[in-house]
Amino acid sequence: GVVLVLSGFENPLRSQLRAAAVALGAEYRPDWTSDSTHLVCAFPRTPKAARARQLGGLLVGPAWIWDCQKMGRRLPCGP
Description:
This protein is an alpha/beta fold. It has a single domain (2-71), classed as Rossmann fold (3-Layer(aba) Sandwich), CATH 3.40.50. It has three helices and four strands; from the N terminus they run E-H-E-E-H-E-H. The chain has helices at residues 13-23, 47-54, 62-71, and strands at residues 3-7, 27-28, 38-41, 58-60. It has a four-stranded parallel beta sheet, sandwiched between helices. The model has no long low-confidence stretch (mean pLDDT 94). This is XRCC1 protein. It comes from Lanius ludovicianus (Loggerhead shrike). One of its GO terms (cellular component) is nucleus. Pfam families: PTCB-BRCT (PF12738).
């Protein structure tokens, strides 16, 4: 049920984050769409982050993907 968008990352990190999330079963979108659920962002105070918040999305950092990968499952998004 995770449809994620990445913001503020350059390759190769961007590709690594995307690959890790997709391997866990997430779907990827290059831009925020109506079915997006999570914004993985390097910087939480950007126009893209504000839009995601406004549309009900969850903002997470890259550590969330790495932690999910380490545990092999989707982890809560809270602190």
